[in-house]
Structure formats: C-alpha cells, structure tokens
C-alpha cells in the first residue's frame, strides 16, 4: 500500500471518538480544519483524507454528483485514516474516494497483503465493509502505489524500464525512500524478496520533495515516489514498471453508504461511475502537478477536469 496512505492506522475506538468530535465541529458554525460548507437537507456528505490528492478526488466525485442534481456537502481534508474511516463506518460521512489495497489492508492486513488482482481486491473490500452497510463502486484505472523512480538520464544509461532491470545494476546505487521503508513489506523487504535488489546504501528522506530533489541532484540514484505524484508529470523522471506486481492494486475507488445509494439510486451511481471510467494515473499525475507545483486551486482543477471530460459544462 502507499506509505503515505498507510500511516496512522491506530486504535479504532479512539479514532471513532475523534471522528464524532470532528464531524460535530464540521456542522454549520463548527471550526474544524479543512474546507467545509453547509449543505441542504439530505445532502451527500463527501469527505477526503488530509492530503491534496484526496481532496482533489473528493472534489471531482462530489462535483460530478452535484451536476447530476444531487445535493452535496464537502468535508475536505477531514483528517487521516483513523478519523475518516470510522466516520464513514458510523454514517457521519457518505462518500470517500478510497484506494483499494490500502483500504483493504487497513481492515484486514493479511488479506490486503495477499490480494494482487483489482477485481479480487474490490470483492474483498466490499465484503469487509458490508457490516457497516458501505458499498464499493467501480474502481478507476488510476492508481496511487509506491513506485521506483530514476532520472531519464539514468534510465537511458542503464537501460532501465522495469524494476527487474535494476537487479544487475543495483549494487553501486543509493536508494532514497521514506524512513519506514526498511520495515515495510512493500518497500525494501519486498524489493529484496520479489526482485533480489541489494542497494549499496539506503538514504532515509521524509518527503516526496526531498526524494525527488535528491534524485535530480544525484544524491540518490533511485527513489521511492507515489505513482500518481506530480513530480512524474514533466517527464524528466521515469517510473519503472512493477513487472512482478509487488505492490497491491491501489486503484482509486468511491466507497459510499448504502443509505445514500438507496436515496438517490442509479442517478448517483451513474455519476460516480462516469468519473471512474475516465480517471487515469497519467491524468491524475497532471492534476497533482497543477495543484502541488503550479499552485492551482483544487476545486477549480476538479471542475476543469470534469469539463474536459464532458461531465460538467465548459465555462462561458
């Protein structure tokens, strides 16, 4: 699962109490962090985790169902998984853009590690969420996984296209990755087991910005980034194909309470599926680049993407 999304899986009972507190504060007159606005009675409450890609996805899905004539209230940047997940389970929010493998592993760690097929991951996640009357809709092609990245110059020099290509050349190379990478099964231990990779050195770097900068400046030769990261959009960095499928499928997928599906029916599901049918990893990288590096507004980028896909009218 993405290291970013895996952080913060702590005690759910405490998280549930936090969720109640945060959602109460998010009602009209509340002061909780994030972007919140009051919505009409019966509105679908669309929530996101507290990082920009999640806020972008929630905005895209929420604006799409709003265009379908369904009232929406946004709770963007609500918090980490230990707040958002219990809030969904308790019906305090209705819709969250999730990641298949990460969501499954948060509920059933062993199952999440074993599933490699997106369809099987969706079935397992649907089964895990059924006790809370939460449905899992059609996943998008877009994924946010851990990925190994090199500069385009390094890829050309060492003839690298896949992670397997690194095996014969890894010995003198330095890997830059999050500090927790040596302990995560889909990071260093998995790279050794699945690909036989042995790097000369591991350099712990906390943020994607640090890792991308270290890569571009030659401080490290290989870096762990997220496969939907905006750093990959300009084309000067190369994402190596995970050809042995170490990473679990982490397709973007809307999860939604059965109660709002019953309330709004096919109109709601069709609007969400229309988004998922068009959302690709390449498109998500471009949007992340626009927001994180070009400084564009999340809501404006979401609406612009929907307009380009013909889901909402183009302005003017």
Report on this model:
Residues 4-22 and 24-37 have low confidence and may be disordered. Strands 8-7-9-6-10 form a five-stranded mixed beta sheet. It has a three-stranded mixed beta sheet with strand order 1-3-2. α3 links the parallel β2 (44-49) and β3 (72-79). The chain folds into two domains: 3-143 and 249-308, D-Maltodextrin-Binding Protein, domain 2 (3-Layer(aba) Sandwich), CATH 3.40.190; 146-239, Osmoprotection protein (prox), domain 2 (D-Maltodextrin-Binding Protein, domain 2). The chain has 13 helices and eleven strands. Helices cover 43% and strands 16% of the residues. It is of the alpha/beta class. α5 (100-107) crosses α7 (118-129). The chain starts with a helix and ends in an 8-residue tail after the last helix.
């Amino acid at each position: 699962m993405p290291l970013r999304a895996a952080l913060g899986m702590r005690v759910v009972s405490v998280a549930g109490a936090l969720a109640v507190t945060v959602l109460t504060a998010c009602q009209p007159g509340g002061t909780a962090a994030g972007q919140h606005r009051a919505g009409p009675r019966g509105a679908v409450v669309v929530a996101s985790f507290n990082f920009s890609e999640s806020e972008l996805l929630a905005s895209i899905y929420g604006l799409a169902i709003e265009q379908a004539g369904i009232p929406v209230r946004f709770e963007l940047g609500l918090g980490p998984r230990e707040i958002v997940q219990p809030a969904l389970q308790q019906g305090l929010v209705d819709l969250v853009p999730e990641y298949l493998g990460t969501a499954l592993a948060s509920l059933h760690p062993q199952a999440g590690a074993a599933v490699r097929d997106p369809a099987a991951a969706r079935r397992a996640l649907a089964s895990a969420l059924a006790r809370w009357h939460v449905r899992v809709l059609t996943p998008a092609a877009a994924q946010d996984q851990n990925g190994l990245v090199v500069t385009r110059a390094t890829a050309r020099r060492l003839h690298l296209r896949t992670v397997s290509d690194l095996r014969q050349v890894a010995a003198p190379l330095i890997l830059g990755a999050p500090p927790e990478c040596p302990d995560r099964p889909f990071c260093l231990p998995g790279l050794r087991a699945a690909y036989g990779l042995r790097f000369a050195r591991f350099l712990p770097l906390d943020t994607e910005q640090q890792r991308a900068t270290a890569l571009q400046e030659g401080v490290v030769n290989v870096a762990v980034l997220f496969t939907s990261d905006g750093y990959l959009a300009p084309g000067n960095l190369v994402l190596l194909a995970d050809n042995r499928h170490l990473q679990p499928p982490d397709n973007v997928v809307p999860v939604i309470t059965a109660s709002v599906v019953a309330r709004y029916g096919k109109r709601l599901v069709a609007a969400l599926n229309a988004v998922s049918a068009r959302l690709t990893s390449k498109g998500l990288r471009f949007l992340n680049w626009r927001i994180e590096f070009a400084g564009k507004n999340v809501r404006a980028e979401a609406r612009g993407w929907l307009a380009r896909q013909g889901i909402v009218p183009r302005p003017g």
